[in-house]
Amino acid sequence: MAKMAVFCDFDGTITENDNIIHIMKHFAPSQWEGIKNQVLGQEITIQEGVGKMFSLLPSSLKDDITDFILENARVREGFQPFIDYLEKEKIPLYIVSGGIDFFVAPVLDKYGPFEEVFCNSSDFSGDTINILWPHSCDEKCNKNCGCCKPSIMRKLVDENTFKVVIGDSVTDLEAAKQADFVIARDLLLEKSKEMNLNHSAFETFYDCIELLKRLNEVRV
């Protein structure tokens, strides 16, 4: 039986809300909404959109934004039991997030262990927040993803690995296309249905545990 690896999104998946949207609603001037709509409509790349949105925010807001997320981010039910299940089954869990290090790391700090966490970085040395892209696209992807989830997957596992992607949005779609099984909600669930991807829906991480148990039973 092929070994399994799980690639899990952060915003809107581990957390119940999309933290970038939450930050923008609270701190950004109104033009962020037009940028968001361009990203969701795939008119501009994720990298361009996220960079533009954060450039609307002064660097001086760093601590305020981090505190705001720690106070308001709600982690989806069953997350630590899900991590514990994967550890018991010796299934690696990679967090692959289009979020930014200065709020992803503090939220995840009390959870784990993870095989590895991938997200975008940030620079507060200028007047406005500058987003950095340490996990950019490889030669097989030219979509300017920002944190390129399919490129990360290609780097970490080979074609013999049974790949499970868990996510909720358009930012997870390219990774989902590479997956052997997709656990989805919201927009990613709609897209998985449209594209006939091998998938199932979830609301809590207890659902994810049961789905992975069934997958393992079928694959034995």
Structure write-up:
- The chain is an alpha/beta fold.
- 43% of the residues lie in helices and 17% in strands.
- It is built from 10 helices and 7 strands.
- The protein has helices at 19-27, 32-40, 46-54, 62-72, 79-88, 101-108, 149-156, 173-178, 186-194, 205-219, and strands at 4-8, 93-100, 116-123, 130-132, 162-167, 181-184, 199-201.
- A 7-stranded mixed β-sheet has the order 4-3-2-1-5-6-7, with helices on both faces.
- Helix 2 (32-40) runs antiparallel to helix 3.
- The longest helix is centred in the last third of the chain and has 15 residues, at 205-219.
- The protein is globular and about 55 Å long.
What attributes characterize this protein structure?
220 residues, seven-stranded mixed sheet, 10 helices, 43% helix
How would the blueprint of this fold be written?
Elements: E1 4-8, H1 19-27, H2 32-40, H3 46-54, H4 62-72, H5 79-88, E2 93-100, H6 101-108, E3 116-123, E4 130-132, H7 149-156, E5 162-167, H8 173-178, E6 181-184, H9 186-194, E7 199-201, H10 205-219
Parallel strand pairs: 1-2, 1-5, 2-3, 5-6, 6-7
Antiparallel strand pairs: 3-4
Helix pairs in contact: 2-3, 4-6, 5-10
